[in-house]
Amino acid sequence: ITMLMVMSMEIVVMIMRLHLMKLVFLQMNLHLITSIIVRMVVIQMKTILKLDTPLANFGHGSIKPGQYEFPFISTLPSNIPPTMRETAGKSHCEVRYSIGAHLVQPGGAGGLFNRITKSWLRTLPKELIIIGKPQLAGIIAGGIALPPEAQSINYCCCFNRGTMTLDAELERTILSPGDTTNVFFRCRNDSTTPAFGVQAHLRETITWRASGHQQTKSRLIGQKFVSAYSFPELSP
Q1: Which residues, in sequence order, are bridge partners of residue 152?
Q2: 163 or 208, higher pLDDT
Q3: Average pLDDT across the chain, whole number
Q4: Residue 34: CB partners within 8 Å, gap ≥ 6?
Q5: How does pLDDT run across 158-200, given as a tens digit for each residue?
Q6: What residues contact residue 134 under an 8 Å CB cut-off, 6+ apart?
Q7: Which is a Gene Ontology cellular component entry for this protein (predicted)?
Q8: Which of the four, 29, 43, 157, 222, has the lowest number of CB atoms within 10 Å?
Q9: Which long-range contacts (CB under 8 A, 24 or more apart) does 88-91 make?
Q10: Residue 113: helix, strand or coil by DSSP?
Q11: Which of 114-128, 182-196, 207-221 bottoms out in mean pLDDT, i.e. has the lowest?
């Protein structure tokens, strides 16, 4: 990353301080009474990275008028969540990151700069998109088995026609975008009703909470239908 600075006058300065900010924003619309909507907003801001870069090339601790570039490299914490935004109706949550810089004079945060309007001594924060890595702590790699589950087949809600039993096994529990995985089905039709096939679907569920309340949104990521012709066991 390169920080660009343009100075129109000479000032006394020793350090350019870079900072990465994380903003967690939660908004929930609560319908407490039919005609009243209570809006709850929770904002959490946290500094997750501060980097002090000495401006050694300015010699006597002052910056002459001109344009300067300050390239730097820094390692982000491995456990930070990625940039995200999700909406459910008029409620939404987001995790947002921004990066900026400001100048510090000799002696730290006090002195001359505290008596001058700070707007021209700091950059406007720029949004930074973070692509997070999966947090695998506590996750056991490998497959997952769904035990057999029998479902009663009723006609007109009252007349039982027997049961159908289905169990499945997922080859992998950790998937990245673009990955494929195998899903194994075992089924038995102990009813007098024919089945058309078996459908597997993958859903994403996001839940956010604020002050004891929560909002959940679920959406379909993908699905696969397998015809009954591939499952002779589905025949009555």
Answers
A1: 163
A2: 163
A3: 71
A4: none
A5: 777 888 888 888 888 777 778 888 888 888 888 888 888 888 8
A6: 174, 176
A7: cytoplasm
A8: 157
A9: 88/215, 88/216, 88/217, 89/29, 90/27, 90/29, 91/27, 91/28, 91/29, 91/215
A10: helix
A11: 114-128
pLDDT tens-digit series, residues 25-80: 666 665 444 444 455 566 555 665 555 554 434 556 677 777 777 777 777 777 77
* Domains along the sequence of the chain with CATH: 2-127 (2.60.40), 144-234 (no CATH)
- Give the separation between CA 121 and CA 109, rounded to whole angstroms: 12
Q: How far is CA 194 from the centre of its chain?
A: 43
Beta bridge pairs of residue 46: 22
Cα 135 to Cα 77: distance, rounded to the nearest angstrom: 12
Q: Count other Cβ atoms within 10 Å, centred on residue 185.
A: 15
Instruction: Show the tokens assigned to 33.
Output: 């009474």
188/107: higher pLDDT: 188
Listed in sequence order, the residues at least 6 apart from 74 whose beta carbon sits closer than 8 Å to its beta carbon are 1, 18, 49, 51
Distance between CA atoms of residues 84 and 96, nearest Å: 7
5 - beta bridge partners? Answer: 68
* Residue 157: other Cβ atoms inside 10 A: 5
Q: Does residue 232 sit in helix, strand or coil? A: helix
Please choose, from the candidates 206, 207, 205, 204, the residue with its C-alpha nearest in 3D space to the C-alpha of residue 221. 204
**CA-CA distance, 97 to 130, in Å (whole number)?**
7
